[in-house]
User: Fold this.
Amino acid sequence: MAVETLFEISEPGEAQTKEVRRGRAVGIDLGTTNSLVAVVQAGQPICLRDQLGSLLPSVVHYAADGSVVVGQAARGLAAQAPQDTIASVKRFMGRGPRDAEVTRRLTPYEFAPGADAVVRFSLLGGRRAVTPVEVSAEILRVLKARAEAALGGELDGAVITVPAYFDDGQRQATRDAGRLAGLDVMRLLNEPTAAALAYGLDKQAEGTFAVFDLGGGTFDISILKLEGGVFEVKSTGGDSALGGDDFDRALAARLLRQMGLPEDAAGDRSLTRRVLDAARDAKEALTKLSATEVVIERRPGDVWRGTLTRDELDDVVRPVLDRCEPPARRALRDAGLEAKQLSGVILVGGATRMPIVRRLVASLFGREPLADIDPDEVVALGAAVQADLLAGNARKDVVLMDVVPLSLGLEMMGGVAEKLIHRNTTVPCGAVQTFTTYADNQTGFDLHVVQGERELVADCRSLARFKLTGIPPMPAGMARLQVTFLVDADGLLGVSAREETTGKESSIRVKPSYGLTDDEVERMIRDSFAHAERDVSERLLVVERVEADRILQATRVALAASADLLVDGERAAIEAAMAALETSKAGRDHLAIRAAIAALDAASKDFATRRMNQALQQGLRGQDIGAVESKVGK
Amino acid sequence: MSIEVTERAVEEIRKAAGKRPSLPKGLRVGIRTGGCTGFSYLFEWSDAEALAEDKVLELGGGQVRVFIDPKSFLFLDGSTLDYASGMMARGFKWTNPNVKETCGCGESVRF
Assistant:
């Protein structure tokens, strides 16, 4: 008798999805020199500013009274309290004391003694010690407060950018800093990827991009590959001690010579600062002008005036800039590419505003770089775009979707598509299903991710294939493969497979919407209705045939292995049932196959029981449990 | 071709809808591939309007709307949706002539 089931009405998507969160989410560029926060408003990403501009200098000053000063004001205090004012803390993120020794040369800091895994800055004459994570959290707190003031409420989440070359430790430290600052870090995003997102390059079909990032104190070059809507970092390179500040220093040295002073300004720190400021102003002015006046107060009442042309600036900058070339060429070579294969070059970092830098990039890569977006802001803007998508506020112009447009599934034995996430499920969403091995001693799984509404894989769209190998030989049905499908808010599908008994894992990421037009989605859905009847009967048939094959194979193995356990006439009966199953399997009636399977089951039931008993007795004689189970397996 | 929903079921759907924080646009029923015997019933509120391809049943003078995608309609055709209450449990009940077998948990069916 059939079990009678009573249903409750479920809430939409309750079965497999988690709630979509809509809300205020920001992108944060936590930079070596400056940090920024951006948000998408009215569909456009914008950087949030305070009175001093959008950039927040990444400088934190710890005062003797216990207060903490961040940004421009902290930078002003660096000269008088260098050890209590931490700049460029990013260089120390996720570093141990030993790694920090290398970086130490660049900084005036004292480190607290101890065998800790992380470095600690010793402050206020040793009365206080802080970790780089804590220092970074101070910067993030200021950005968070700025964003909350601008958006009028608490933030729901943030995307923080990190250099592509950051290792796991450095990434974790960044995440920790976010958490310490009270942010829900939805994701860490690679800086070059963020820049590419700001330019909307993810909407292209595919391509390879170079991101040339020349900031205040660091130079990074990254080669990104876009495939199926997913960016992959192919190679990175750079120079952690090369940036716009080096241009300022070189130019200041030239100005000091022009003023008839030695390059160290005879040890006059205050004058050095004034000359450096004048150098930076002149450099910025010469981005637009071909000549500019430079005015420097040598000492109170004694003002020096001079002019500087762009050509003169270029002469000073060129030797420094030349150092960008080798890492850039190396990155291309590491990615196995030639410059002409690139689909685009993106400029990041304030120093890339300089015409000479743009010329160098153009000649290095053989094309004009993308530079429409403020290079100081582009990373934060891209992070904001990502944050907005993750928060569920999908942009109207993005093909992506707040629902999964077509079902996502896996190919099963016999070419049947098993749907894990159904069409029209709201993103983000996920599903988990456990599978097992079909054949004895199967040591791997071929996972074929498909998309579509049809029942047979042949009628669906193939998204990706990947393998999980290295599973030890086991009887069929013993392995437990847990497959997880996760679609994040920007429609990216992550499929991971984990064999539970061994812990072996494998995963893949793909953008299901890639290359799909609305018309195609429409067509695939309509086809599934048009073919519904045939599809389902085909599926039913395939499923029963697969089951028939499995049981036939198992019976054959059992007959060969345990012929001694057969009683008179039993073999004939079993073989007759097998032959009947073979016959019905060749037909197209799935119910007939099911009946034949049941008949074979019945014919071999006693034989199977005897086999099981024998296996158990052998087990009692000291066989290991694994072998027993393998014989128990049906 | 039709699916019958008993008066009792319509009334229960209407009552259940009224208990939600917001009124649903309809009740989505269907068959999904999945579950231990290959197919299972879908039975959930829809906060979205019916899709263009859906069959929509207007019941109880338009107070209750049931959405069924065309593929599921094939398998639900001829079925009756009723509401049953007994000593042990109460809930909605499908009587589906297409079903050949159900599983132990009852949520999955075979055709």
